[in-house]
Amino acid sequence: MRLLKFLLTRQLSALMVATLVAFSLAGCAGSGKDKLPESLSEADLYHMSGKALDDRDYSKAVNALRTLESRYPFGPFAQQALLDIVYAYYMNSEPEASRAAADRFIRLYPQNNGVDYALYLKGLASNTASMGFIERYIPLDSTRRDPGQARQSFNEFADLLNRYPDSKYAPDARQRMVALRNRLAAYEIHAANYYLKRKAFMAAINRGRYVVENMQQTPSVPEALAIMIESYQHLGLNEPANQSLEVLRLNYPDNEALDKDGNFVHYKVFDDVNPSLLNTMTFGLFGKTTHQEQNSDKKSDIGSTTQAKLAMMASAPKPPKLM
């Protein structure tokens, strides 16, 4: 019996070693295949990368451009190659690498006329950096996620507009900033709803007030006012509740939180502050408390998700020619 176990162990060990060797050889073969011939000139590598970009073979373009950068760092094609690789990385779904390349271009060539493009691509890349593979192709609601990347992207587009207000990329950057701002406002509303449901009324008021004061003209402002009104009423603070109600009446008289006479009906009704077992086990997908809550969430999510996806998923323009 011991001899049989010994033989089986040896066979399994040999099989594992053979498998590891096979994978190693495959990796070596793959890396050798990706390595471009040393005989290629700088112009050859540049034209190879250009053809790959035209063919939308972005992995091949990245390989050619990286080779060009490493072999000819001070050649006549160096600046163009660095700007091209910013684009190639972005289109190859490598946003972090795209941002790093954009930063490198801006640092090395601050007076170059391609800096505005590098800033623009940097903003695009930041907006997709936190997205997984599934999110790039399936319309999931991004307004419920951490807004850090959205804020970073917004700031980078703002930097582009401050430094190059007449850039040809400025109009698109402005539109993306509008969508990002709407997304950030929607995130604040989700957070306010979370606090409101758990009767943390002051926290809900603070979130709503932040939207009203800092994110004016976003679709989330009337919802933020309604959250403030309801929270103030729960706390028995009638004066600020009436002030918020007056703002809602004047600016959004048709809001669903108001009746036909302009009286505040309610914002959301949470039957049970503590989520049900089904709601907890399904992470909020099922077991919501009221039909009204579901409808309100659906309405908020559709608009904000559409705008956020428009800001994130549009294809980037090709880089300008510097030579």
Automatic annotation (TrEMBL):
Keywords, comma-separated and alphabetical: Cell outer membrane, Lipoprotein, Membrane, Palmitate, Signal
SUPFAM superfamilies: TPR-like
InterPro entries: BamD, BamD-like, TPR-like_helical_dom_sf
GO biological process, one term: protein insertion into membrane
Outer membrane lipoprotein BamD-like domain mapped to chain residues: 41-244
GO cellular component: Bam protein complex
HAMAP family xref list: OM_assembly_BamD
PANTHER family per UniProt: OUTER MEMBRANE PROTEIN ASSEMBLY FACTOR BAMD (PTHR37423:SF1), SOLUBLE LYTIC MUREIN TRANSGLYCOSYLASE-RELATED (PTHR37423)
NCBIfam families in the cross-refs: OM_YfiO
This protein's name: Outer membrane protein assembly factor BamD
Lineage: unclassified sequences, metagenomes, organismal metagenomes
